[in-house]
Design brief:
The complex is a heterodimer of chains A (165) and B (139).
Chain A lengths: L6 H21 L8 H23 L9 H17 L5 E4 L4 E6 L23 H13 L4 E9 L2 E8 L3
Antiparallel strand pairs in A: 1-2, 2-4, 3-4
Helix pairs in contact in A: 2-4
Chain B lengths: L4 E5 L5 E6 L5 H24 L8 E7 L3 E7 L5 E7 L7 H20 L12 H12 L2
Antiparallel strand pairs in B: 1-2, 1-5, 3-4, 4-5
The chains are: A alpha+beta (165), B alpha+beta (139).
Chain lengths: 165, 139
């Protein structure tokens, strides 16, 4: 339960939630004329541009990253806390360029009923974040593909596939 | 002035912004800034190998000639900054150079956050020009 003392912080967090919700609605406004893929792609692109710029600002203070894993840890901890107010709950990797990030209570899915009721709509609320992660990594020199998967709200996992060569 | 040349070099080593003090040999300074990139590359690669090394963004003096001193700085986003000063300028302390780079970094970040700026393009922002002007004038 949130107390009145945190009201200022709460208001600030809510604004981002609302803007994101509206961005999703806006992207899907095309109706019959636009496919789901196009709308998702729009959101992903928005996320990419945001992530790219955001990371320029955020990594100003941190020292230089040692390697790819260092960068992924940064995404899971610092970036996730800055944007989603929590850390990634679990990071797995095969040490060959594939990373899976588990978020047990993803911020943008936490306002909907838990479970499978809204499963078909979940991808819309993950697209921006996939782009955000891809944009951050791109600016840090890591080219990759980011996809997301949900089986049960509000948990989800993001998969990062680094493109080498 | 504090510096005779200030350069911002992009990820693929293309120059995004180069300022040269008036009356200075522009081509020569461009060349020196570019040569600095090799040293930056060496220093960055070296840090990854030696454990416990400070992973600072400021890389210090890259090299010095009779006429000039070349300093370097790299960001986590693979952008390089080079500042060249007169070798004769002994009043300029390391700390001051560090501060100049930090200011330059802040200015660059602002450029990237401009929605109309496409990363990788030349920087044409007037605000950036003014910022560099203030930087080299010691303001």
């Amino acid at each position: 339960a949130e107390t009145g003392g945190r009201a200022g912080v709460m208001a600030e967090e809510a604004i981002f939630d609302f803007i994101h919700m509206e961005a999703v609605s806006y992207a899907f406004q095309g109706g019959e004329k636009m496919s789901e893929d196009e709308a998702i792609s729009k959101l992903e692109h928005m996320g990419f541009a945001t992530g790219y710029r955001l990371v320029e600002r955020l990594t100003r203070e941190s020292g230089r990253y040692k390697d790819e894993l260092d960068i992924m840890k940064y995404i899971c901890k610092d970036l996730w806390v800055t944007v989603y107010k929590k850390q990634i709950d679990n990071l797995r990797t095969n040490h060959q360029g594939v990373y899976v990030l588990h978020d047990n209570r993803f911020r943008f899915l936490s306002r909907m009923a838990a479970g499978k009721q809204y499963l078909q709509y979940a991808p819309r609320y993950l697209a921006f974040t996939c782009g955000l992660v891809r944009g951050c990594l791109a600016n840090l020199g890591v080219t990759c593909v980011v996809t997301a998967e949900v089986t049960q709200l509000p948990a989800c996992k993001f998969q990062i596939q680094v493109q080498r060569g | 002035t504090m510096a005779v040349c200030v350069a911002v070099i992009g990820k693929e080593n293309s120059p995004l912004y180069v300022w040269v003090g008036s009356g200075r040999e522009e081509l020569h300074l461009h060349y020196l800034a570019h040569t600095g990139l090799d040293v930056i590359q060496e220093k960055v690669a070296a840090v990854n190998k030696t454990p416990g090394d400070t992973r600072e963004l400021y890389l210090g003096l890259l090299y010095a000639s009779e006429e000039y001193k070349v300093f370097g700085y790299t960001t986590n986003t693979r952008i390089k900054f080079v500042i060249i000063t007169d070798a004769a300028n002994t009043t300029l302390r390391d700390n001051e150079i560090r501060m100049m780079f930090r200011r330059l970094h802040n200015m660059y970040t602002n450029v990237v956050c401009n929605p109309f700026y496409i990363p990788g393009e030349q920087i044409t922002s007037r605000e950036f020009d003014q910022g560099v002007g203030a930087l080299v004038a010691g303001n």
